[in-house]
Amino acid sequence: MSRETLEHLNSSTLIGNTNARGTAWHYRADLQAEEPNHYPGPIPVEDVRRRLFDWEAVSRPIAVEQVADLDTMTHLNEYGVPARWATVSDKQAICRSDDDHVMGIFSNGYAAHQYDTWLVTTVANILDDSLSISSAGLLRTGAVAWVEVSVPESITTPEGVEFRPNLLATTSFDGSIATTFKRTITDVVCDNTREAALAETGQAFKVKHTKYSTARLVDARDALALVHTLAEDFAAEIQQQCSQQVPAASWRRFLDAYVPRTDQVGHPLSGKAPTLADKKRSTLERLYAHDLRVAPWAGTAHGVIQAVNTYEHHEGTVRGASRAERNMLRTIAGDFGKTDREALAVLEKVLA
User: Fold this and answer.
1) pLDDT (tens digit per residue) in 262-307
2) Radius of gyration, CA atoms only, the chain
3) Which of 61, 172, 267, 352 is the most exposed, fewest CB within 10 Å of its CB?
4) How far apart, in whole angstroms, are the C-alpha atoms of residue 168 and residue 123?
5) In angstroms, rounded to a whole number, what is the distance separating the alpha carbons of residues 280 and 311?
């Protein structure tokens, strides 16, 4: 099950531009309060602040319970033995200011990147008539947050690929991710997210949570401006991938290399591994040949990458979370971009 309840997702995430894109998977009319979390158009900056980030991450001291004598005791422990609290001088807990929920424990060198400063203010500086906030939200009881900026209308390439350029700003207070600003693409036909561009490096700007990190806010603002060049870059990538032919024999070799039935030394897989591999191969073949999100580009490199990406988003096994929550966390962490690049590298070896 998802860590996030439907009530949480209907109150602690904001979804914009629903007139053009429809409602989110988690939308439930009966769970919407007097102020719905879905917006027909862009999400106002002040609504993100007011509804999601109206609290701060604060540092709290950490103490451990120690056995004490009668002169130094402060209380009795659970066994009725005299005890006292001793502060751990080199550690701190990062808590929510509104309810003191502990989001993470760190050394004293850790500096919290406040959501309002790093996500909202920094993003607001690049908004103009062509860019707006399309989604924002909290996960893991506030320990992970994101703000996404995108263009209001989707773009269609001559190859028939409909996409929407995004810029994702995200950070965490549980140590799971650094503050990150990254360029992503939503493939509108199936709402898949891809990092752009696959063949390039440096498409994500990351800042660690240290006491000197505030000095990099200016660099972060410069990194955000990259969203204005994203449409051209991705359209060029799509053109290149659609022009790269993948014959049927090459597709089969790709499957053999990407989802092998043998181990690294050529021995047949054992246990449940052959069944799992066959199931994944079968699903990829179905998507590639018949799924409208993939099949129109079968026979090209774009079709192969689209099959892998669609599988990862919509078909792969999910444990311990809802699929949508898992997808959002994987987008934030960059896992989908890594998967796409790995698939492209396998395909290039096959074609070579």
Assistant:
1) 877 777 878 888 899 999 999 999 999 999 999 999 999 999 999 9
2) 24
3) 352
4) 9
5) 9
Evaluate the CA torsion angle 326, 208, 169, 114 in order and state its sign. Answer: positive
For residue 212, CA distances in Å to 59, 110, 118, 123, 288 come to 17, 10, 14, 21, 48
* Non-local CB neighbours of 17 within 8 Å, separated by 6+ positions: 39, 40, 41, 42, 132, 134, 150, 152
User: What are the residue ranges of helices labelled H in 12-101?
Assistant: 18-21, 45-51
Which residue from 199, 189, 133 is spatially nearest to 156, judged by alpha carbons?
Answer: 189
* Bridge partners (DSSP) listed for residue 150: 132, 166
Q: DSSP assignment, residue 142?
A: G
Contact 246, 347 (CB under 8 A): yes
Q: At 246, which helix (H) or strand (E)?
A: none
Can you give the length of the chain in residues? Answer: 352
Cβ-contact 165, 231 below 8 angstroms:
yes
CB atoms inside a 10 Å sphere around CB 290: 10
pTM: 0.80
- Rounded to 5, what percent of the chain is helix, strand, coil? 40, 25, 35
Q: Are 38 and 18 in contact (CB under 8 A)?
A: yes
pLDDT higher than threshold 70 for residue 128:
yes
Residues 106-116 have pLDDT tens digits of 999 999 999 99
Across 243-272, average pLDDT: 89
The two tokens of residue 161 are: 């690929």
Tens of pLDDT along 135-180?
A: 999 989 999 999 999 887 788 899 999 888 888 899 999 999 899 8
